[in-house]
DNA sequence: GTCTATAATTTGATAGAC
DNA sequence: GTCTATCAAATTATAGAC
């Protein structure tokens, strides 16, 4: 793996646990075993790292959705993939969604990062709206906005109260026919 | 108003916008017009301020619920109050829930703060469960976990994409009979 | 690509005067 | 309660050698 990706992996992991401002270049560099000055070769400013982090996260996320779309035509199977992408973050990785974390800190972040986060949410709402439409659900767009909200919120609440039933409750709502 | 409450007001406002680590004692003191050293008289450590912030926030929140409980016996009216406490944060104040913000940053915060945040969520789930039970809703506890999640998540998503319809979608779900 | 060295700033926190 | 003065540590960032 490239050093650039190693940096992004560690930064993503730590920021999804602690937030943007609680993670320093020294933290990240220390875990890799290099000096913080070396990070600036890959990402001149911290904001550059943050933006790239969100873009990579969003691309990975939406690539997984695309992959699922090519595996099945059943809209409910596709929605299940969308749910599991959120669910597994907490259940398997014990991590929140990067964009939920950055969304919660929005006014403390560089504007470039906020734009990327907003794009992520809009794209998710749009994707889920189409999936619900394909499933013949009424008010697909409203339902999609509720679905994105409940999954993001459930990660935060389930993580805080340490109860995966919170995630299950949210998943059931999104998948309800 | 006491100076202590002035400090808490400003700290709460800024941290609900930016997160815990993006707000410094100097920020807060500067807005009041005193020096940061003076803040340590009221709150020796930043963690003390953070804990008091969450406790005050939770007490105010639950006092508003209690007040509503004494105004009406209709469980759906009470649930409406619960919804509006969340909704108005964003719609009227343009702020997220303090505990959603701190919950998103949990591993970057002092443990005392996390405990207070967890208590807030647990108490909300418990309150909403009882309200749904009183309304005769099936699976009241699961529904309550979903309800708390969707409202917290909707604040973050609606704020990011600047679309209050996200909040309305979440509110409708929580109030659906 | 990574290092050393270093600058400039910010931060949480304390001591002691008023 | 607030101030001045001060500190030690941390942080983002740059310059230049290897």
What descriptors fit this protein?
homodimer; DNA-binding; 177 residues; elongated; 0% strand; mainly alpha; Tetracycline Repressor, domain 2
Task: Note down, in words, how this protein is organized.
2 copies of one chain form a homodimer. Chain A is mainly α. Chain A has one domain (45-175): Tetracycline Repressor, domain 2. The first copy, chain A, is built from 9 helices and no strands. Chain A has helices at 3-18, 25-32, 36-42, 46-69, 75-93, 98-104, 111-134, 140-161, 165-175. In chain A, helix 4 crosses helix 5 (75-93). The longest helix of chain A has 24 residues, at 46-69. Chain A is elongated and about 55 Å long. The relative contact order of chain A is 0.12. The mean pLDDT of chain A is 98. Chain A binds a DNA duplex (18 and 18 nucleotides) through helix 3.
Largest interface (CB within 8 Å) is between: A-B, 49 and 49 residues
CATH level-1 class of chain A: Mainly Alpha
CATH superfamily of chain A: Tetracycline Repressor, domain 2
| Rg from alpha-carbon coordinates of chain A | 17 Å
In short:
The structure is a homodimer of 177-residue chains. With 177 residues, chain A is mainly alpha-helical. The first copy, chain A, contains nine helices and no strands.
Topology:
The structure is a homodimer.
Chain A: H1 3-18, H2 25-32, H3 36-42, H4 46-69, H5 75-93, H6 98-104, H7 111-134, H8 140-161, H9 165-175
Helix pairs in contact in A: 1-2, 2-3, 4-5, 4-7, 5-7, 5-8, 5-9, 6-7, 7-8, 8-9
Chain A binds a DNA duplex (18 and 18 nucleotides) through helix 3.
